[in-house]
């Protein structure tokens, strides 16, 4: 263990592996709100946070569980499709609160190309939130729509019905055939956009004035 007269004990959250304070410092210096994306073993959580002297203030937030309760989502709450929809929902709420720009904060999650945290970012961008990014980091559109899950489910249903029942028990319990996930994704996405249609119209009107 490090020691000596110049040794400084790391902050508690750094010791616990929860916060990279250098990255946080750089993001705070940008002066922009942070699009905070976190994932657990069951859910995706997206927040738009503004740094204040007294501490972080959450301006808008969305949880993938809301997709189930508010919009009838019947698939998994931690997959790529759910991450995209949660990011879109959080961004629409941020736009409604007057936030137009942000910087991405994925915490200690690894920045792997196509990861769920970047699916959430794609959802936020498609909603109209402006966040610096590289196009190469996003999952394929087909993956966001859940086409890979649908194809795998169709294969299992034909070749191994028992495994199909086990792997997709939650989908089937919720009344969704996993082969129809892409269609269900579009249905829920349209519900979210319709719910915030007035926000999108205001954003488009503001963009038209700027042009």
Report on the structure:
- The protein is an alpha+beta fold and 211 residues long.
- The chain has one domain (25-197): Nucleotidyltransferase, domain 5.
- 51% of the residues lie in helices and 13% in strands.
- The protein contains 11 helices and 4 strands.
- The chain has a 4-stranded mixed β-sheet with strand order 3-2-1-4.
- A hairpin with a 4-residue loop joins strand 1 (34-39) and strand 2 (44-52).
- The mean pLDDT is 89.
Structural class given helices, strands, pairing? alpha+beta
Number of strands: 4
Strand content range: 5-15%
What is the CATH architecture term?
2-Layer Sandwich
Q: Biggest β-sheet: count, sense, barrel?
A: 4 strands, mixed
Gyration radius (Cα, Å) is: 20 Å
Q: What is the level 1 CATH name?
A: Alpha Beta
Instruction: Give the rounded overall mean pLDDT.
Output: 89
Q: How many structural domains are formed by the residues?
A: 1
**What is the terminal-to-terminal distance?**
58 Å
Main sheet strand line-up? 3-2-1-4
Provide a count of the helices: 11
Q: Into which percent range does the helicity of residues fall?
A: 40-55%
The name CATH uses for the topology is Nucleotidyltransferase, domain 5
Unreliable sequence segments: none
- Gross morphology is globular
H and E order:
HHEEEHHEHHHHHHH
């Amino acid at each position: 263990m490090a020691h000596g007269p110049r040794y400084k004990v790391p902050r508690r959250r750094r010791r616990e592996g929860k916060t990279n304070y250098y990255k946080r410092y750089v993001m705070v210096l940008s002066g922009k709100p942070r699009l905070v994306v976190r994932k657990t073993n069951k859910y995706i959580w997206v927040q738009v946070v503004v740094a204040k002297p007294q501490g972080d203030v959450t301006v808008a937030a969305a949880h993938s569980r809301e997709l189930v309760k508010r919009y009838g989502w019947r698939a998994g709450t931690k997959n790529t499709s759910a991450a995209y929809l949660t990011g879109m929902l959080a961004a629409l709420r941020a736009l409604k609160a007057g936030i137009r720009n942000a910087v991405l904060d994925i915490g200690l999650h690894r920045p792997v190309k196509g990861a769920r945290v970047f699916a959430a970012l794609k959802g936020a961008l498609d909603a109209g939130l402006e966040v610096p990014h590289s196009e190469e980091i996003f999952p394929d559109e087909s993956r966001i729509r859940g086409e890979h899950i649908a194809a795998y489910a169709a294969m299992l249903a034909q070749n191994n019905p028992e495994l199909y029942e086990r792997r997709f028990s939650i989908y089937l319990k919720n009344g969704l055939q996993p082969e129809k996930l892409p269609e269900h994704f579009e249905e829920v996405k349209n519900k979210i956009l319709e719910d915030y249609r007035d926000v999108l119209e205001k954003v488009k009107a503001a963009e038209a004035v700027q042009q």
